[in-house]
Amino acid sequence: MIRLSMGTAIELGILNKKCDIPPTTAYVMIGDKCNNNCDFCSQSIESSTRRDRLSRIVWPKYTKEEILNALKTYKGSNIKRICIQSMDNKDAHDEVEEFIDYIKDEINIPMSLSAKVENSEDVDKFFSLGVDKIGIAIDAANKKLYEQIKGNNYEDKIKFIVDMVKKYPKKISTHIIVGLGESHKDIYDLYKYLRAKNVTVSLFAFTPIKGTRMESMSQPSIESYRRVQLMTYMIDKGYFDEYFTFKDGYLNNIKLDYDIIKDIESGYPFEIRGCKDCNRPYYNERPGSTIYNYSKPLNIEEINLAKIEINLK
């Protein structure tokens, strides 16, 4: 089973609809029903959510022939990468191999893979097939939450990611979901550690999905998320402990210097960061609603709104 995100299908010309923010990556989802049981995920083995959704995105089904033809005849300039999202089951992993083998000699677009890989042999295999980046999710930013929500060992997962970065520098990424119940200090400690180990880290806002065990939880407040965005942006820039004040785990204050103020005035900290050429439009939000991750440079109204939302004195 192969699906494209709706925005990808529109951008590639397979689906005749309009998309106000074109994706810069072609997002492909392979597999039916994940063996994982993550409490927040629409593809969890216990989820009753529609099978054509991941987070709040709809993923229509297509044949590999339709997808390859669309990629080969694509005349636009937005798509710069393919990112394959794989379910965690053997059939899905086999189908990922088949799909990569089917398209890799026909197109000249770099490919990433986001999948549950548990050992070095799996990572070696997928790199040998032709992907140039692999994403290995952490999601929850502290041990208790991770093991409660994901059901795996937290320290083992982080060690595995760091070991893979040593083996494949600049080719391994992960992501953190903000709003699962962690503190800002949890995110600070994990993000700082991962960046020191040269792991690429993306941020998502928790999005409640009907049919999951966490459907009744709320998204994080926009103030909370903006503060995490700015904090992680500053960590990427080399700002550490003395710039951040936490109270009961909450990021109570951020010390700003001229360079960071200038970046805030340009909106940079609030744009999507992480893997190159990945803009993930509307993954956490609906058009017209509160925007957590901006998928394109902010205009002056959006910058002014973000400055209000972050609520720093």
UniProtKB/TrEMBL annotation:
Listed A to Z, the keywords are:
Iron, Iron-sulfur, Metal-binding, S-adenosyl-L-methionine
Q: Which PROSITE patterns match?
A: RADICAL_SAM
For the keyword Transferase, the answer is no
- Matches recorded under CDD domains: Radical_SAM (cd01335)
SMART domains in the record, alphabetically?
Elp3
Q: Which SUPFAM superfamilies match?
A: Radical SAM enzymes (SSF102114)
Q: Which Pfam families match?
A: Radical_SAM
Q: Where is the signal peptide?
A: none
The highest taxon in the source lineage is Bacteria
Q: Show where the Radical SAM core domain sits.
A: 20-241
Identification of the protein by name: Radical SAM protein
